[in-house]
């Protein structure tokens, strides 16, 4: 009898048998993987620019509710050609804004992204992004894991 001829069938039957015995016990693990960063974002809002063509700013609160320290390395925004994480600091007696390095959040730590401080700049916005709508922001941490959250879109003159 030629075993090589029957090997593919044996593998298929074995795989089917294992799958049939599965009780779906992996579902909680899959749910945990939905946000592998452990980050929780709240009060996220994209403030449209007052002058069309200028970048928008995104403000929010972020908490590391996970089990490991993380470093937020980058952000991307649906409907923007690019995004950067910025901070406002004092330099030579003046307040200046610029791209910032990774933001480390230890377990349980929080950070505020707010006017005059940390924020995400969203460049070259799609004209379809209008006040009253929503978009999505993805935060990526060191190691490449990411999480995505909904962001409310507000007009330039609205409460930030």
Task: Describe the overall structure.
The chain is globular, with a radius of gyration of 23 Å. Strands 1, 2, 3, 4, 5, 6, 7, 8, 9 and 10 form a ten-stranded mixed beta sheet that branches. The chain has two helices and ten strands; from the N terminus they run ααββββββββββ. The chain has helices at 3-21, 27-32, and strands at 39-47, 56-64, 70-77, 80-91, 94-99, 103-105, 110-113, 119-125, 134-141, 146-154. With 160 residues, it is of the alpha+beta class.
Question: Number of helix segments?
Answer: 2
Global geometry: globular
Kindly report the oligomeric state of this protein: single chain
Count of distinct strands: 10
Query: Cα-atom Rg, whole angstroms?
Result: 23 Å
What average pLDDT do the residues reach? 85
Give the CA-CA distance, first to last residue. 76 Å
Q: Please state the structural category.
A: alpha+beta
Q: What's the order of the H and E elements? A: HHEEEEEEEEEE
Helical content stands at 10-25%
**Largest sheet entry:** 10 strands, mixed
Note the beta-strand portion.
Answer: over 45%
> Which blocks of ≥5 consecutive residues have pLDDT under 50?
1-32
Keywords, please?
single chain, 160 residues, alpha+beta, 10-stranded mixed sheet, 10 strands, globular
């Amino acid at each position: 009898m030629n075993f090589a001829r029957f090997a593919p069938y044996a593998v298929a039957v074995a795989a089917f048998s294992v799958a049939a015995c599965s009780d779906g016990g992996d579902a909680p693990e899959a749910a945990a993987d939905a946000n592998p960063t452990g980050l929780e974002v709240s009060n996220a809002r994209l403030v449209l620019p007052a002058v069309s063509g200028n970048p928008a700013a995104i403000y929010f609160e972020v908490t590391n509710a996970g089990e490991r320290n993380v470093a937020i390395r980058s952000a991307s925004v649906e409907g923007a050609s690019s995004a950067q994480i910025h901070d406002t600091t004092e330099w030579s007696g003046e307040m200046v804004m610029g791209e910032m390095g990774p933001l480390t959040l230890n377990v349980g730590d929080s950070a505020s992204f707010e006017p005059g401080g940390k924020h995400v700049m969203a460049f070259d916005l799609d004209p379809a992004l209008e006040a009253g709508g929503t978009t999505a922001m993805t935060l990526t941490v060191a190691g490449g894991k990411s999480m995505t959250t909904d962001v409310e879109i507000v007009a330039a003159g609205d409460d930030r």
